[in-house]
Hints:
two-stranded antiparallel sheet; Sterol_reductase_CS; Delta24(24-1) sterol reductase activity
Amino acid sequence: MAILHGTGQFPVNTFLDEFGPLMSVAIISGFLASFYAYFCAFARGAQHRITGYPIYDFFMGAELNPRLFGILDFQMFYEIRIPWFILFGLSCAAAACQYEQYGYVSSEVLFLVMAHFIYANACAKGEHLIVTTWDMYQEKLGFLLIFWNMAGVPMSYCHCTLYLANHDPSTYVWNDYALSVIFMAYLFVYWVWDTANGQKNSFRMMERGTFMKRKTFPQLPWQEVINLRPLIRRLVIES
């Protein structure tokens, strides 16, 4: 994204300048991809757990984990690679537009860029851990997942970004000390969230013998709990 913006091939401002057309494309694509996934599953005989109620099956999906050439998992791609990076792109666009207009980026916009970056980054660096989640092994790829991840998440979770981008920074300026506390609190909560989910899902993978350590950034400490027996023994004794 930085290279495309720097070379002028795709200025990051485009995310905001063309927000209306992008949202229209996302909505239309969400519907078209949902219909394609539904009918394609039946055409290939890949339907899974069909209830016989077409509206319900279309909404919940007909196929589980469809793949392109057996390599690209569409379900994982829709959930991880599309929504959160569009959302991050919108926040970067707000920062770029603000810098062009005012010559600086407000702390409030920087907070959004930071928050959306670490979430998108967490999804990318830990995507191998989500294979044990309900979304991956139980839910099928239907309208619910396709439309929400193509249009719902990126185009509705960005309301705060749109507000900051369309208002003068002086109208929403926060106290620097209060904002510093929020920055630190957010980073601490992120560490707890990232570590807890890393431990939970890596333990599930260890149970199944499918755990794989990835050297992705940032690897926070205590991402895996290797031996739970002492902890379980202690909990049993204390209880």
